[in-house]
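COMPLEX REQUEST
Ligand: flavin mononucleotide
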Amino acid sequence: MANIGIFFGTDTGKTRKIAKLIHQKLGDAADAPVNINRTTLDSFLSYPVLLLGTPTLGQGQLPGMDAGCEGESWQEFIDGLSGMELADKTVALFGLGDQVGYPDNFVSGMKALYDAVTDRGARVVGAWPSAGYDFNTSAALIDDRFVGLALDQDNQYDLTEERLDSWLEQIKTALAA
Ligand SMILES: Cc1cc2nc3c(=O)[nH]c(=O)nc-3n(C[C@H](O)[C@H](O)[C@H](O)COP(=O)(O)O)c2cc1C
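STATUS: Structure written out below.
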């Protein structure tokens, strides 16, 4: 088992694609990405470092039944995290959204993941600047920085690889811990 676990939720597959790209770039340091609706709590908790990816659906929601997904996803998984201790975990978040279609909730779902893990003691690394995007509001901003890497495959797919490389470089020391 590698040190880094990559877990993602998805509705139409874009977040899965990004998770696979991250895995390719990290090589042996990370295990293959797993859809959050196909894992167990034990497997999730077995990694000291977690890379967690989510799209934002509905109006600023995490994927799951409430957001209109066909199956369970992040929402149901974090509901099941209550009572869990994550104090020994290092977490980095990546979130997909559409800043043109949903400018008032751009990548807001990342904040729900951030809250779920920080409430249980996890250390979150990989905050990302909000410059270079055009949107009105996002719940995922703290002090003008996103709580994780914001990606927009709908409008800025050509910037994704560069953003990803720069973000992975930024967090590489934390990922190796
Ligand atoms: C019904 C619906 C609601 C969405 N709501 C939001 C939103 O509130 N904020 C946002 O940034 N993107 C929103 N999006 C855009 C998706 O997050 C984006 O297309 C993402 O890349 C989808 O990833 P996936 O293929 O992994 O599901 C929404 C998309 C759909 C279809």
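REMARKS: The pocket of flavin mononucleotide is lined by residues 10-15, 55-60, 96-98, 102, 105-108, 153-154 (CB under 6 Å). The chain has a mean pLDDT of 97.
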